[in-house]
Amino acid sequence: MLRPLVSLALAATLMAACTPAPEGTVPSLPEGMIEAGAEQNGGEAVIQVGQVIRIELESIPTAGYVWQIDQLPGFLEHVGEATRPTDPDFQNQPGVTGGHHFMAFDLKATEPGTGTVRLIEGRPWELEAPDSSGPDAVWTFTVTVEPAG
């Protein structure tokens, strides 16, 4: 009985967190930050200790479809997360709700290593269900971190 309540609370939190926000809620990429999106699915990158990778993928959070980190190598630290509308000129108008959004995950390299980041998309309460067919989408990316030079 607790699992449905937890899932409902998580869904409500995600819906509130993914409400359209004013432009600029996802900060611009700082110098040295690398960005990866849908086109980099299955790709790879080589970065240095201290650098940050921002993974930004499209989702429909108001319908419950959100990206979640499913696998994260120990040498990458999840340091930030944000959302932004895909069409801010339209979605930030008063009274407009829903629509597609970009979800961004910032991962900082803390030490050398090689591993795979895996994100899954789906409705959290459905992914937790015993009869779940699994995620609706999977995104993977191999990261090699070298010592800062």
Features:
single chain; 149 residues; alpha/beta; four-stranded mixed sheet; globular; disordered N terminus
Itemize the secondary structure elements and their pairings.
Blueprint: H1 2-17, E1 34-36, E2 43-48, E3 52-59, E4 66-71, E5 76-85, H2 88-91, E6 101-109, E7 113-122, H3 124-127, E8 137-146
Parallel strand pairs: 1-3, 2-8
Antiparallel strand pairs: 3-6, 4-7, 5-6, 7-8
What does this structure look like?
The protein has 149 residues and is an alpha/beta fold. It has 3 helices and 8 strands; from the N terminus they run αβββββαββαβ. The protein has helices spanning 2-17, 88-91, 124-127; strands spanning 34-36, 43-48, 52-59, 66-71, 76-85, 101-109, 113-122, 137-146. The strands form 2 sheets. It has a 4-stranded mixed beta sheet, with no helix packed on it. Strands 2-8-7-4 form a 4-stranded mixed beta sheet. The longest helix has 16 residues, at 2-17. It is globular, with a radius of gyration of 16 Å. It starts with a helix and ends with a strand.
